[in-house]
Give the backbone structure.
Amino acid sequence: MSWREIIFYFFTYGILIYSILLISFYLFIGLYSIGETRKYIRKNKNTDYRLLAVSSQAPSISILAPAYNEGVTVVDNVRSLLSIHYNNLEVIIINDGSKDDSLEKLIKAYDLYKTEYFVHEQIATKRVRGVYKSRNPIYRKLVVVDKENGGKADALNVGLNIANHDYIVCIDVDCILEQDALLKMAKPFLEDNDNKRVIATGGVVRIANSCIIESGRLVKAHLPKKFLPRVQTLEYIRAFLLGRMAWSRLNGLLLISGAFGAFDKEIVIKSGGYNHNTVGEDMELVVRMRRYMEMRKLPYKITYIPDPLCWTEAPDTYKILGRQRNRWARGTIETLWLHRAIFFNPKYGLLGMLSYPYWFFFEYLAPIIEAIGFIVFLVFAYLGIINWPFFFLILGFILLFGFTYSVFAILMEVMTYNQYKRYSDILRLVITAFLEPFLFHPFVVWSSIQGNIDLVRRKNTWGEMTRTGFAGDAEVKIENNLPKEILYKLNHATVVFASFSLVWLFILFALSTYEFIFNGLEHQFPEQIQITLLQVLGNDVLYWLKISSGLYVLFTAISFFSSHIAKRIYVVTAIVLTVTQIALINYFSTALVPLGADLYGYSIKDIKQTLGASGGVNNIILAGILLGIIMLWLAFKLLPSKIKLHPLVAVVLPLLSFGALFSSFTPDKMLFKSEYVNNLVLNKSDFFFKESFLYFFPNEPAQKVTPSEGDLFAAVDPQYPFLHKENTSDVLTPFFSLMAEKPNVVIVLVEGLGRAFTNEGAYLGNFTPFVDSLAVKSLYWKNFLSSGGRTFAVLPSMMGSLPFLKNGFLEMGEQMPSHLSLLSLLKLNGYRTSFYYGGDSKFDNMNIFLKKNAIDEINDEGTFPVGYTKLPKKNGYSWGYNDKELFRCYLDTRNQMDSQPQLSVLLTVATHSPFMTNEQEKYLKRFEQRMNELRFDDAKKNISRNYKDQYASILYADDALRGFFNRYSKRADFKNTIFLITGDHRMPEIPMNTKLDRYHVPLIIYSPLLKRTATFNSVSTHFDIAPSLLAFLHQHYGLKKPSLVTWIGNGLDTAREFRNIHTYPLMQTKNSIEDFVMGEYHLNGNSLFKVYPTMDEELIEDQEEANRIKATFGQFKVRNEKMIKGAKNLPDSLYKKYFPVN
Amino acid sequence: MIIGKNTPFSINVGSIELAIIIFALLLVAGVCFMLLYLLFVNFQEHRKSLQKEYIEQFISTIVFWEGGEIAIPAKVSKMLRYSYFRQFITDELLRAKRDLSGITGDNLRHLYEQLALNEDSVDKLNSFLWHYKVQGIHELAIMEQGTELEQIHLLTTDRNEFVRKEAQIAVVKLSGFEGLRFLDAIPYSLSNWQQINLIAQLSGVPAMNFTGIEKWLQSSNESVVVFALKLSGMYQRLELRQTVAQCLVHPSMQVRMEAVKCFQHIYDETTAALLIQKYHQGNKQYQLTSLHVLFAIGGTTDVPFLLSQFKAEDHSIKLAAARILAKYHGFSLLEAFVNSGLTNNRRPFCEWLSPKESQTHSDVYPWYDIIQQIKSEQTT
């Protein structure tokens, strides 16, 4: 996969996944808030808040209202605050060094005098110039503090130092409070709250623009007339009524609006008061208070009041709005940065694991991701790789979702507090919701991005105020050197990452060395040991570099928040990857082929059965893995600190990693002649992940391959991709002398029976003396190919000559397309059909296929009569009944005098991993004996002994066949029976020489009806059997068969000389169709091989030929893809006509 | 469907596309429903506002009704068929009744009974849903429907906290101090808010020597003890002084603090000494409370104790102690004490009172500021 593809997929899927998560969160928040709001309203419906106003038991409250250059309105605003009816109250106005006449106006209006006041400086602040009180007892609650300018946070800290009461309420001086606002805010501090201390309470802030306000009081609420304040009204409703209610229910609130919030003074002071070095002091304080409580494990709660309590003027120009949003963005990132230790830190519970990550990913990152998404969209649009219909679908959906969410918020508002009662108000809100994404949202995103940029450029201002900061605060120190700090962190993270990565590389080397030696001892060492080993290690390095690029990004990103967590995540990831590697190595050592995406083609049951029966997983291995994990953990614990790298050296690793990821370099897959060695040198994880990626993100064949001219299948109707005229020639008649009665047909499928060890000329030696003896009395195709590399392909290909679809025809299960086959068509013509299998026919959905072919009998493990012996168990698993018993059962249960012709399919199982038979010792001796018979020299014997179990099982299967034919020959029905013997694929657990070797099996057609024998060197496949047999039987017995068929195959080739007139796809594993044979060529992915008469093959460079074959292969893929997408296999009318009725 | 169609890269989006379309259709249906519902709710609100005006006018005529059965307008009788209207008129009556007592309040109660709205309230009381139950209790209590008192009393220990709390308020409202008998065996905590509510209900009941308070002061339920201490103080139950004194050694800090506060209302000549004796058994908040009470009750002659607190590390303690010393012993004692060497290696206190230019603020901080503040407080 090229780097361009990686980037494309990364952005497309990355943004898609992010959007899904974001939408899910919004849905959750919307729904979760309903319960909390409903409960609040029901609970407080009859609450008489007036009790608190006069009660001596009410909590004492200090209102803190900082004022800066508010001279125009300050007197009225203070009057509004003093009019609040609450006994235990003091109102502290902090004049933050205003340059106007605010203080003078206050002194005059409220008859203030400068009092001697001992300021208990619990929090360091700018100098207090004076504390003023009123001579008029009416204003006894009023305290005015004059101080040097230091910003809002500093002013609030002064207020904290001055405040005499237990609770503080911080408000913006220009806010209009509802009459009962304070009472409602005070109540949560008096409630039980499950014995949790309420440390803060937030209140709803509403937009006051266009509202009628008289004498500092809100008389009537109106929806703002201007668009900008109106859209902010909607935004506030969404945020306060939905978002914060949901977070309040979770006790996960991170923000209480600076415009109006109540706090437990003791906790605020103990937490250190407001941070004057951030513009997000309101959020920062709440996070710090929570941290304070969490660190001390004190139960606490932050509550939230959904009633509209406080009204404030919203910006009504884009300029002021931009400034506000810019500030909010800076405040958010500053707070998140200061408290980065919380990020995914389980010590902080919900705060660390949900609230903080939510803010980071969906509040802070959302505008950034949105902006990146927009830029990527422009680039993709420029490159012309946008699918516009899909783009508009997604865009429409997102807009619709946003609109729905807003309408839901409006509905909640109307059903609860209903501030805007007029129809026209509701309509205008709905229209505003519709316009928001076009006229408001992009500006907010832009302002937020500006905030991020300004933060980096250190433009840390609030209006005219300039924050000066205090020295000596560690957090502040970091804050003031953010760019330098980022560089330092990056540098440190790179060095630490390099040391951890090197440890992991050593581990990978150790594993590969182990794999190399183990396989060498267990199977065989390659001829060129040094070069092979170098290739193994080289592949490891390549895999390590590729993985490191992703890990590096993750590691450094997390390191910015917590180096400790980054290390942990790295170690856990590396251990998981290493264990995966161990498991894959173990698989290869058993199966001798690397595990790829075929894993996904099997059901859990299939995998369990295969692994269990093959002895792939046992307690020793599990214990070994556990021990391995402990050792890996120790290695990561002890070794990285021993590796000291210079930063310049360390930085090479990420550079190389990205180079490896984005380069198109791939190691030569066919470096060695032996397929086994080519597989051995692969990094198994690299192979597995690559295959898995392709499985889940397949390349669209239609885009990759341009079909060649002409039509390979001469399809008659584009609706049915494989339907074509039946024109298979009858090539078998010349070899037979048939009777009047229809002959019986017995097909024996021998598990793993490959040509590599079968019959004369087998390059590993002929380990099937009986099959060989039978071949010379038969029609024998020595260069025959199976259609699949595993059992899943054999039944559909042989019986129905059917395409593979996505993961093999059988994988479709009950959704298998309607089809006709040898089974159903012979049944239609009076045959009785049966299937015999020693194992469970549910494996690979074989039973479903057979039933869909109207089979008369399925005889498998579950239906075997008593008295038959199963294969020995390994780890509690057995594949089922052994081959001899399978044949015995068959012969015992079939009536030899039956006049009805029979079609029987037998599938053996003993030659499957773990290759254990009930007469193991006997056949191991037989194996030794056979090697002597074959005159193996000592070297060859030693190599062969590495696979003694495999060979013993082959000899066993051969013997079973011998017994079968011996008994059968004595039966009455023998003389009118045609036998077909073939392998379902070549057993991969003995190393293969070539890619094609995996498919190379014999086909033997034996019958007493044969009038002459023959050996064919021409190439045919499983696909050809059904068409040929039908053509043959049709010729002699007038069998009813359709004139239109869907066969992939066009019949057996009976040419004696080596040739291949076919063009067929072959499917090695369930995940992808990579092989294609055409003429004398074999295409495997992008590699082209020339096939020789011995079926050996050689990699060749012939681009023209390769393109021609790929184009033909494309024809198959296009048709196959149509079927995957739901095209029918054949018309219903045809199916109904030729499918037998039970 | 393919993303990146006719390009080197492509993504099959068939299933995604389908999911989006299904989800989008659901959203469209949701939006349509919500918009219709919005119209419906708005219509209801509009109708309510019209009815509200009429009902308020009707109720205002009832308030001054004299004698006999109240004449119900035909329009109201007709509308009473609808449950939403009955709830609406009940709410309006409750709103008015909360602010009215005497004959005017009785008229509202009569109307409530005459319209058989009490039956609705009883139905709610018997509902399975907690919020209906709470509403029913509330209505019956406001409308002084004592017939359901026993049933409501049973709910004072209900598992649902909202039902329980409303029932507690109702029984106290309906039967005064007698209603507090649920405190004898309440297993749940009484929140401060609930205590304020109960105290507010009792405020309308003539003060009397109610019984059971001794038992509550010794309750195993900490919140009951706190509440009893509040009652002891408010109703100045001097005879409970000994029992309250025992609460000064209660394991709960909140109880100890409340006991100190209680002493402000039931103190005698021994109280100051007692509070000083127990002074060090509490945290800063407890000590500040003790000093505030000592400031209020006076009578302490334990000057060394107060001077030691004037030297305390915490500035709030210093200030509170200095206030007592200044109030009962004058500034001369403070100044003399300071001059006698409160601050080692520092200038005499008299110099602080007129700090010279050469003196730094740290030399006199914080005592100078504290004394100045107290002086300032006394002059205003």
Observations:
- Residues 701 and 1117 of chain A are 6 Å apart (CA to CA).
- Residues 726-1009+1026-1132 of chain A form a domain with the Alkaline Phosphatase, subunit A fold (CATH 3.40.720.10).
